[in-house]
Amino acid sequence: MVVRACWPKHTFMGRIGDLESKVLAVSRPTPTQANAAMLLQGNAVTRLLLVTGGHVRVHRAALANGPTMLLDILGAGDLVALEDLVVGSRSHATYLCGPKLASVRAISLADFARLRAENPRIEQAVVWTIATQLRERDAALALASHKVRNRVIMFLRWLAAAHGREDTETGAVLIDVGFTQPDIAAAVGAAPAQVSAVLSSLRDNGFIAIGYRSLHVLADLRKAVDGVSAAGNGSPPG
């Protein structure tokens, strides 16, 4: 049995409080492989997957055989394919295990339907989760008209807020989701060379430190945004 002292508050599991034991009781460990697809866009949703560790990337192609865009990143406490289950459709996206192995637990559709019917707080958490995802993606769309620099900065701010780990002594925030510069480019709709130039500028000006598939946020990235006020916690990909 998976036991966590605290699920992130912005996740489905973080919203259901002491009902987590009921969800975990009907879940089963499921093997994963780094960079492997858990569910392909267009395939039937036959189960839910609860992420308990690591990260899962959500990609979508607008056209058949076309390039994909990174829509979201799921972490501990999130559910894979929740939106598709509620709508009753095939998967709207492809879910990929990150380069650093994610741990997930499978929940049958019948078991999850029973939990929703018997526990109003679980149903409320489902609605809250989907509404929050919609709001975040709307916020990201509003950045589409901004220059690449600002799109990259706001994406990094969202990553730090949603998936970062703060060093309590230095205040630096580690973003360690296994991203490459092409991954960031896919998230913000830019060329990898443009992303590289922005990251180099942020590094040279003391805002970030770049590691292998990771980076540290060293200073308030809002001060690096060009020409606009950057209120809030940043915007998600997509």
UniProtKB/TrEMBL annotation:
Full protein name: CRP-like cAMP-binding protein
Keywords per UniProt: DNA-binding, Transcription, Transcription regulation
Spans traversing the lipid bilayer: none
Gene Ontology BP annotations: regulation of DNA-templated transcription
Domain HTH crp-type: 146-222
Keyword Transcription regulation attributed: yes
InterPro entries: cNMP-bd_dom_sf, HTH_CRP, RmlC-like_jellyroll, WH-like_DNA-bd_sf, WH_DNA-bd_sf
Pfam families, per database record: HTH_Crp_2
Species annotation: Labedaea rhizosphaerae
